[in-house]
């Protein structure tokens, strides 16, 4: 059986305006890379060397400024902890909430893409237990269809999942109506030419 070579994750973008999100994305990709390649089963020295090999030069330069208590410089989890503290400390919650609250549905964007974008933005907003409720509010305020917005506002006991279901159903019905209308128009045009 032929093996395959898994590409290393993209380097950590230290200059990203949202370093916290960039770190979260890199860490997730690196964790998956370690699992898929078997590196996670190796010792800390190999895991550290692999991390420093793929994280990018900017991040290595940052790493070189870290000070470790004696003994921690050889522990992989301490390396991750240092990067986590460095990158997560750079989040401006007020700005992240501003970005979340400015996000509206783009033209042609389906509800699933819109909600995924809102959930990603909400991750750095520190909403706590209000997260789903605030995402629901943003969905209602941010969808482009005025009639659908009214329908959602009229719905009693509206949850995020229920709102997504209503919007999906409306989108499917609209697509079906468009298809039926175009089929009817084509049939009508053909009968005129016969």
Automatic annotation (TrEMBL):
Protein name: Tick transposon
Lineage: Eukaryota, Metazoa, Echinodermata, Eleutherozoa, Echinozoa
């Amino acid at each position: 059986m032929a093996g395959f070579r898994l590409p290393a994750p993209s380097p950590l973008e230290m200059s990203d305006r949202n370093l916290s999100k960039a770190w979260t994305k890199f860490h997730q990709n690196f964790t998956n890379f370690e699992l898929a390649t078997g590196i996670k089963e190796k010792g800390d020295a190999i895991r550290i060397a692999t991390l420093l090999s793929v994280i990018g030069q900017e991040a290595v330069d940052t790493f070189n400024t870290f000070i470790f208590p004696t003994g921690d410089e050889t522990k992989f989890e301490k390396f991750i902890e240092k990067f986590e503290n460095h990158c997560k400390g750079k989040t401006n919650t007020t700005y992240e909430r501003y970005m979340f609250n400015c996000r509206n549905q783009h033209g042609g964007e389906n509800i699933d893409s819109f909600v995924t974008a809102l959930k990603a933005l909400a991750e750095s907003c520190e909403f706590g237990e209000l997260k789903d409720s605030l995402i629901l509010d943003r969905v209602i305020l941010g969808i482009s269809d005025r009639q659908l917005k009214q329908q959602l506002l009229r719905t009693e006991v509206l949850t995020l999942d229920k709102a997504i279901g209503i919007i999906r159903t409306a989108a499917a019905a609209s697509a079906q109506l468009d298809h039926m209308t175009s089929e009817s128009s084509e049939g009508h045009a053909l009968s005129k030419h016969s």
